[in-house]
Amino acid sequence: MGDIIKLLPDHVANQIAAGEVVQRPASVVKELLENAIDAGATSIKLIIKNGGKTLIQVVDDGLGMSETDARLSFERHATSKITKAEDLFQLSTKGFRGEALASIAAIAHVEMQTKLEGAELGTHLKIEGSKLIFQEVSAVPKGTSMAVKNLFFNIPARRNFLKSDTVEMRHITDEFHRVALAHPQIAFHYYVNGSELFGLPVGNLRQRIVHVFGSKANQKLVPVTEDTKVVKVSGFINKPAFAKKSRGEQFFFVNNRFIKSPYLHHAVGSAFEGLVKPDTHPGYFLYLEVDPGSIDINIHPTKTEVKFDDEHTLYAILRSAVKHSLGQFQVVPSIDFEADPNLETPYAYKNKGAELPKVTVDAGFNPFLEAKSGGATTKSYRNVSKPNNDQQAWEGLYVGLESKMGTHDNFSSLQFESDTITGSIFDGQSEPIESTAKTFQLRRKYIVTTIKSGMVVIDQSRAHQRVLYEKFLRNSTVKQAVSQQLLFPLSLSFTKADVRALKGIKDTLNAVGFVFDTMEEEAVSVSGVPLLVTESEVGMVLDQLIADCQQEVTDANFSQTDILSKTLAKTLAVKTGEVLENASQLALVNDLFACKEPLVSPFNKPVYVTITENEIDKKFI
Ligand code: ADP
Ligand code: MG
């Protein structure tokens, strides 16, 4: 056999390299924004259509390129940023590999217009799949405009792999946030499908954060500063009271480059220890300046990890800097997790001023069943003081009540039919809980009760999740969801991105009973909530919903209703550690075994175990 090794043609090599550089539209956004910054732009426009699948355009007022450079910039290893290997260790620019443009041009249609400062005319060129379509002299403004269209047009497998526009948009917006937060001295404008999502004027860091995250952000910020030989730390942390369910607002920048560092994240987290509720995440915007020679920015183009020479010292400095700020600004602990839950005000009611009186309506209220209902409704297994039935104004506060009653009837009659629970307890084979069954709560975590053949131990939180989950699913299939109207619409502030996320799932939110009066840029007005959600929980629930929808689980065929129902169930369910009264325990057990799938929680965890008399007997031998 003769020689068989061939050199790959350039366009093929570029396509392969592109796979590394460009994973999704957001990667293109990152590269183009970084190039614009490296070009010394003072104002940058980002224009996106259809989640970046149709168009990603970045327009800057930077240096621009000469005619020759314009063409050269699309060659592999074409860069103006390093000339020798040593330069790598003193990098102050974002790019250096000279790979981005070549890669992007290999897998998309790229149109560039560029002009050097002072030049009369500039260059206009078009490249499709590494092939130059045309290049001409043209009257264009100073700076550079790069339009990337039809990403992955020649790699169908990759194109099909892209997520929904909403998901891709979120990645792009994340990228935009990172770049915008690292460069408050540059003005940014961000347009999505023709409308402006962000207009960020030049300002200081605090102003930039407020412009990105909304006017409410200002009051949350606590400055952090620390100047040592090893590192200079600056930026802000959010006050612990504003810790969120989502990890959205956590940013590290090293030498003005966004990085991810679980290790440093841990340092900040440990400074906040005891100040935030478990499961919530404090926000931070921390900027570290170190000697460029002391870090190793991973050579991989899209990596956001860095390696520090002296990580341990950095950890200690960061932790103490954050602690110091928390102390200095008298952000003192306000939550005692060890406190007896019996004496505790529910968390959601904490730090709230006097509230307007509100009218709550009992969802399952059916006058004919009243005597049997035993006081505990499906919602409130909790011992939180609740309005009595007789003070509930149930007239006129429902929307779509009729359709609701229709489907709910069976359920509530099943629930309260008798003291005996008739739901099936062993996969189809029905074993009723004894009519004389007593329940008791074990370690504020499990409900124990008896069945004919022995006993059942039920995880209270998972059981309630299951009950709520099925309830929400059921409600959302009713055409006009049952909604509890609020006496006064609730105005809640969010970031622009969060409002966008909410808009994206608005239909589903309506389906489960949320009613929005208005959705503005940074605020929404809520006039109706699902029956099982109380007014004080609305903000928290929506927060959690946004966080969950931000997870990657949102692939093409996910069901929003399902995610929503799961989130609502998780958020609203009684938790481990909550004391349940006897009536509540029984009601919960009742409701659980009226469920379609009592055996597993919505998150596929076991809800209860049974221990037969036989098994117990064996232990006594
Ligand atoms: P790198 O940024 O790693 O150098 P790129 O492929 O991203 O590689 O860009 C190649 C070169 O094209 C850059 O080094 C720069 O000289 C030039 N370039 C790219 N974008 C711009 C821009 N917006 N303005 C001016 N020059 C640019
Ligand atoms: Mg670059």
Q: Your description of this structure?
A:
Helix content is 31%, strand content 22%. The protein contains 17 helices and 23 strands. It has helices at 10-21, 25-38, 67-72, 100-106, 156-161, 165-182, 205-213, 262-271, 311-328, 401-416, 460-477, 496-504, 506-512, 538-550, 560-572, 582-592, 613-619, and strands at residues 43-49, 55-60, 109-115, 122-128, 131-138, 143-149, 187-192, 195-200, 221-227, 232-238, 250-254, 257-259, 284-289, 295-297, 306-308, 398-399, 439-442, 446-451, 454-459, 483-493, 515-519, 523-530, 608-612. The strands form five sheets. Strands 5-4-3-6-2-1-7-8 form an eight-stranded mixed sheet. The protein has a five-stranded mixed sheet with strand order 9-10-13-11-12. α1 crosses α4. The radius of gyration is 29 Å and the shape is elongated. Mean pLDDT is 79; it is low at 332-360, 367-379 and 383-430. The site of magnesium ion has 5 residues, from α2.
